[in-house]
Each structure stands twice: as structure tokens, then as C-alpha cells.
Design brief:
Elements: E1 18-24, E2 31-37, E3 43-48, H1 56-70, E4 74-79, H2 80-83, H3 106-116, H4 121-132, E5 135-141, H5 149-158, E6 180-186, H6 203-216, E7 221-222, E8 226-228, H7 236-251, H8 263-267
Parallel strand pairs: 3-4, 3-5, 5-6, 6-7, 6-8
Antiparallel strand pairs: 1-2
Helix pairs in contact: 1-7
């Protein structure tokens, strides 16, 4: 199964705006106007979850940093394993007294703590990174039809109510609605296994909880996923093709149109 090439858009939006600089030449009345694409100041956050820097995931992450930096983007990375990021959502995430000390409810307590700015410092720092970013890329290997536990823990602890969503402010009205998200991941099974007739079913079924249930719920505009099928079982030449394809896509990533986040995209 091949994903269609993501659409490009010519509509002007926050991602397509231009920065106009007026420069007055010394000793003359001439004013030169320069149009500089705003991606020279765009901010990208990469959430990376792999233990081995020399893995294909590591190479895909490095390639993204390199290519986006070449464009002039400000790239920040959260290397979850290197950071020894705590994936467990616990009482330790709340600084100070609880809203209800008799019955601990993480969702309620994290929401109340966010409003009081009493979340743990690591969560405040990750939320700051998300808040500043225009594009968030998640780079990871597929584990049990989902993301690694350390990345899921990042979602659980960082994307709390009040920061990422606040019902009814969800999906198209989610609190992160002015941002783009992209899942870039590797699989253990090949493309045929993840086809509609394959033993694992259509890969889009697996994307529903990750892209729709998390990203879209929080308001992200979701770009088509970048999927590298079974890199451990293909030739070195094929792995190089995977990296080349990713590099080429990143060159025009700001021109892409988000997918239509409806059940039809996943289950048609």
C-alpha cells in the first residue's frame, strides 16, 4: 500500500505568510523591499524515542534536524531515552497540595495544577517546547501497533487538560489547533502485512488512535505519516531510499496540506 503524495497548497495561511523587510540604503532615498519566507524563523520540535542512535530512527531524526536547519528553521529535540523521561503519570507531577487529597484523579489534578502553574518542571519545559513549535514531529519505532511506552507517557503527562484540550475545545477546536503534527515511524512488518488484505490490517487502522485520538483531539493539523516498512529486513540500498525519500519530503514540508481528519480517511 502506498500513501498518496501529500497535497501542496497555494492558500495563504500562518504557514505560508511572508516576512517583509524594508531596508533603506544609506545616503539615498531608495527603499528596497525583501520578501523572505517565514520558514527562516519557524520552530520545529522533534519528539524522538529510540534507544540506539545508529538505528534507522536515529538517522531519520538526524536527517530531519539537518534538512530543517538548512531551511533556517529553529529545531528543538526531546530525546526521551537520553533525557530518561519519566513516562508514568503520578502524584509526583503535582507540586504542592492536591485539589482533592481524599481521592487522587490524575486528570483533574493535572488540570488544576496546570491552571495554578504547579506541574512538575519537566512537564512545564516540554509544554513550553510544544507551545513555541509550529510543527511537531514524532519519530519512533512502532511497538505493538502503537508508540513506545516512553512516548505514550510523554503524551499522557504533557498534553494535559487546559494546555492541549479543554472540552468542548477539542478536535478542530483543540487548544493546539494552530500547529502541525507528523508521525514518522518504522515498522517490523512489511508493507504487504499492513495492507487491507494483510495479516495486520490496513496501517491506517493503527493510525486512528494516534493521529485522531491524540493529535487531532488536541487540535493539531495532521500531516500524512512518514512510514518506513520493515527496515531491518530490507537491503542497505532500500534503507538509503527511505532516507532519501524523507529528505526530499522535508524540503517542501511547509507546502503540504493536512489530511482530512475524519473516520473516512482511516476506514474507507
Amino acid at each position: 500500500m502506498r500513501f498518496p503524495v501529500p497535497e501542496r497548497t497555494t492558500e495563504i495561511s500562518f504557514c505560508d505568510s511572508l516576512l517583509i523587510l524594508q531596508v533603506r540604503i544609506r545616503n539615498t532615498a531608495e527603499t528596497k523591499v525583501f520578501l523572505i519566507h517565514s520558514f527562516f524563523w519557524r520552530k520545529v520540535l522533534i519528539i524522538y524515542a529510540h534507544q540506539e542512535p545508529k538505528s534507522l530512527n536515529g538517522s531519520l531524526k538526524n536527517l530531519a534536524v539537518e534538512e530543517l536547519s538548512k531551511q533556517g528553521c529553529n529545531v528543538t529535540m526531546s530525546d526521551l531515552y537520553a533525557m530518561q523521561f519519566e513516562p508514568r503519570a503520578t502524584r509526583n507531577d503535582i507540586i504542592g497540595s492536591l485539589h482533592n487529597s481524599e481521592h487522587f484523579d490524575y486528570g483533574v489534578e493535572s488540570w488544576e495544577a496546570y491552571k495554578r502553574r504547579c506541574l512538575a518542571s519537566d512537564l512545564i519545559e516540554e509544554q513550553r517546547k510544544v507551545q513555541e513549535a509550529e510543527l511537531v514531529i514524532f519519530q519512533f519505532p512502532l511497538y505493538w501497533f502503537s508508540m513506545p511506552a516512553i512516548m505514550k507517557g510523554w503524551m499522557d503527562r504533557v498534553l494535559v487538560q487546559g494546555f492541549a484540550h479543554n472540552f468542548p475545545q477539542c478536535y478542530d477546536d483543540g487548544l493546539l489547533k494552530n500547529k502541525l503534527a507528523l508521525l514518522s515511524f518504522t515498522t517490523g512488518g512489511d508493507e504487504e502485512m499492513f495492507s487491507k488484505g494483510g495479516v495486520s490490517g490496513d496501517i491506517r487502522y493503527l493510525l486512528w488512535p494516534m493521529q485522531h485520538g491524540i493529535m487531532h483531539f488536541c487540535g493539531f493539523k495532521v500531516l500524512a505519516p512518514q512510514i518506513c516498512f520493515a527496515p531491518e529486513y530490507v537491503s542497505e540500498e532500500k534503507r538509503k531510499e527511505m532516507l532519501t525519500s524523507w529528505a526530499q519530503r522535508l524540503k517542501t514540508i511547509w507546502e503540504e496540506k493536512p489530511i482530512n481528519c475524519t473516520p473516512e480517511w482511516y476506514f474507507k
